[in-house]
């Protein structure tokens, strides 16, 4: 039995906790900056930590085998240092193909490169190893309210554009799509996984490879890998069958090149429009076929046998939802009215709607529904 610390309390962290509690005997504790009554009500252990106090952070981590981080910012660097000092065996960094990892190479990945360098340093000089989980784009980016509905990207302003509905490729509500194309019109693709399945895969890996000394530095997996045209077709089909989404109106794609996106990104940076720049960076990453978002099936190195389903690995999933099924279910419930937004990919400062859920969920709210068993 392992002792696991999950840093952060967003939806992804809670899904990981949920599947650890359902599928393993492992003990786990959430590390958070503030008391979180919503989690405590579930009888989950929650420890308040101060990421700016290295000694107390290391003390808290004494006896922990594995740290699973869902936090970003400099706090994560502090967490790595404290985990190494506390002789934690394995560190799973935040990432999960998120904004930092998928920032295009042409724009730079300072934060991420620094984090990997720090993890590599500790892997070479201490007993702490690390493994990155790469899962492509979260399904929730295309659902009502975006990832904000799972409290993902709601707390860190740097990520707020990523958490909003309709900010990546397709805006289901407005029926619009911004589709990157290559000069040769070769099909771009994107790997996709729901947040719930990301958590399930992390837990499946922990269940299977108890000897974490044999873990690779990266596990790659996704539930589906879709080309841009497959994505638009699926979204159009779901929209056509969803009452709240003007059924019958097709999604109208606007095609854009990497160069146009780079130009708009430079303008957004100059205008100090961080949200728009981040949103554009994500599109550039797709246009550049970034390996965290678009990886061939052959590079998946998490054995199919331990996963509920891996794209291309066999029959249709029984426990993971294919994107179309997930999307139809997500949009089948009544949706809130849109509110004004701050981010778009057109290069203009305004004019796009957002349906951020950040105002609708309290910090203590959980993404698991009233009864977590609904997820099993
Ligand atoms: N693949 C994708 O499409 C995709 C999209 C979005 C996110 N992601 C990934 O999902 C994970 C979570 O993303 P996120 O956007 O929710 O991260 P986030 O906004 O940084 O929040 C994650 C957690 O970190 C803590 N936190 C927030 N700001 C902090 C700060 N300044 N200092 C210390 N702790 C802080 C919060 O926990 P407490 O308040 O409890 O301390 C929060 O629950 C990341 O790994 C991200 O890369 C992936």
TrEMBL record:
Residues 333-376 are annotated as: Disordered. It comes from the Eukaryota. It holds the Pfam family NmrA. InterPro entries: NAD(P)-bd_dom_sf, NmrA-like, NmrA/Isoflavone_reductase-like. Residues 333-363 have a biased composition (Low complexity). Residues 38-238 form the NmrA-like domain. Keywords: NADP, Oxidoreductase. This is NmrA-like domain-containing protein.
